[in-house]
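User: Sequence for Sugar phosphate isomerase/epimerase family protein below. Tokens please.
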Amino acid sequence: MSPTSRRTFLKAATGTAAAFTLAPALRAATFASPFRVAVISDEISRDFDHACSVIANDFGLSWVELRGMWGKNIMDLDDADIAKANAVLDKYKLRVTDIGSPLFKVDWPGAPVSSYSPQKKEKSDTFKADFTFKQQQEVLEKSIELAKKFKTDRVRCFDFWRLDNQAPYRKSIDEKLIEAAGTAGKHNILLVLENEYECNTATGREAARTLAAVQSPHLRLNWDPGNAVARGELDAFPGGWDALPKDRIGHCHVKCAVSKPGTKSGFEWAPVGGGLPDWVAQFKALKAIGYHQAVSLETHWRGAGTPEASTRISWAGMKKALEQAQA
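Assistant: Structure tokens for Sugar phosphate isomerase/epimerase family protein:
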């Protein structure tokens, strides 16, 4: 977007977000959609009760995605935390789309340490997911347990921190994904593999390759075109999307990025509607294939100063895109 159009968007979106906060009479009624429209709760607040209140009362939604709460990664919740969280969900009549597990967001053993590994960064994973490869079976088992306790059939996973050269390890990685999917399947759980810009499967085209290699009925894709854009697939929609087997899309994350050539990352996050992909077109395409699973807001952008303020602006953009897509 041009600086002028982006400022115009942010001004309008900020006004919409302010209406949610300042005018209770304007708060949303239940939002109807063919999709399970959701928000990752910790993109709003670490206070799970407050985050759920915003999602249900201000946004008018019935679904939430769980990744962390009360400053803990979801993997670190104990029985008391789980009981407390379920009481909050009941209070706001929210259902859980999936468990946002950090499964396989680790280095592949025997390979060079990835430049995206926490070992190469000044600080650890921002979502408090500091687990080793040896702990991944434990992470998988805990994720399955959490899915059952939170009444969902989906657990997110990743494709290991990105390697400069995947080729020597790719077959073994695919086999590990097949094995994990088989374990999940025994418990009637689906793994949804997120194309993550810092991991080996980052784009739509890479996701198509991984899905072709991992022929398991228990593994589907968590399609995140914003992540694909961050990795440089600027045509994530429609190019990356067109490469995907549509019957294996099991979850969808909603966010935007803009290309920033010459910077260290090469991109920056943007509010929904303020970058790529074109979510009106993407929502129309999801609707056209009969997709009825989650479209879950994963804001990431922090341009409004706080997670909650930024998520309110991104939700305003996402809601507008859903409405324009008649979804």
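The chain is about 40% helix and 15% strand.
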